[in-house]
Amino acid sequence: MAEPTPRPTITYASAGVDVEAGDKAVEFMKESVRAATRPEVLGGLGGFAGMFDASALRGMARPVLATSTDGVGTKVAIAQALDRHDTIGFDLVGMVVDDIVVCGAEPLFMTDYIACGKVVPERIAAIVGGIAQACQVAGVALVGGETAEHPGLLGPQEYDVAGAATGVVEHDAVLGPQRVRAGDAVIALASSGLHSNGYSLVRAVVAAAGWEWERHVPEFGRTLGEELLEPTRVYSADLLALVRDPDLDVHALSHVTGGGLAANLARVLPAGLLATLDRSTWCPAPVFTVVGDLGGVPQFDLERTLNMGVGFVVVLPAEQAQTCIERAGALGLPAWQLGEVTSETGRDGGDSNGRSDQSDGVPVVRGAKGVDGGAVRVVGDYRT
């Protein structure tokens, strides 16, 4: 009787998962993670769960927890193409933590998740190092995370990142539509560039034009890839300083992410109020005009996809507008008055899904992402 053919031995490593590489990545990232902490953090890296001492909340009258989760989107494809991974962490932290500040909450702690086709310890450490640095800027603790190797699902050079964060705010201090009044001023805080939204459009434009990431673009003064990897500005600590400023009474904040300026501002306005924004108050950075011109992107589509140079919006009483601009400038945030809020009359049509009707021939955006909010219209032409 013939001997049976021996079956091959299959191990976790031969299936594509390198446990030792994962352990090595943890060793590489320890120092950067250790620096992204707060006094309330209990335990260290490597536990099954991150722990945070919440006893300080007992001193609050009615603490409200705020949480947010997000990723970076297809911007990671450019980081992978250029093999540069130390900045993508700022994009992740900005997208997650700055959403929490919108309601006035102080971000407390964050966790991250990295899925990759192959664990390259140096690459994972660079990603987490960027996350940790951004957490330090935001004043939030990085209390844990996970790196998962997914061979066969992702290519060896591919990865994606996501994160979640938790913050807290007193119930009486929650910002939002309930505070906004007719007559309020709308203040813009400049973005650092594209941030982390609209990269599917940007990549499609670049591909159609046949441009390489290494192409030097005179308008940028650097390569295309360098411009597109400009990290997202992390606003949270500076925004909290503005919210807590005794000379300011901030009513609402809006994080300008997917959907663009008008739709995101409409989400934090109450129904019945209209914000009119004036394009002539600012000149968008060259990256926005280059993308628009290169791809022949219609202005409406460009504005509902990219932030156009406005990363955050502050709504507060008109008499405090100049003080807010000056305080923001002192924090290193270029700011200007973008427009004003008025009572809306003669509403005709529209809905709460970011769609538009017309006001004096100008498109009006109402709400977004299911929010039955206020209305926003953008008038004029950009400054040149």
What do you see in this structure?
It is a single chain. This protein is of the alpha+beta class. The protein has helices spanning 19-35, 75-82, 88-101, 121-138, 199-209, 224-228, 236-243, 260-266, 286-295, 299-303, 321-330; strands at 41-42, 51-52, 63-71, 106-116, 141-149, 159-170, 185-190, 216-217, 222-223, 252-255, 273-278, 310-316, 335-343, 356-359, 362-366, 375-379. The strands form four sheets. An eight-stranded mixed beta sheet has the order 10-12-7-13-11-16-15-14, sandwiched between helices. The chain has a four-stranded mixed beta sheet with strand order 3-6-4-5, with helices on one face. Strand 1 and strand 2 (51-52) form a beta hairpin. Helix 1 packs parallel to helix 4 and helix 3 (88-101) packs parallel to helix 4. The longest helix has 18 residues, at 121-138. The chain is globular, with a radius of gyration of 23 Å. The model is unreliable at 347-354 (pLDDT under 50).
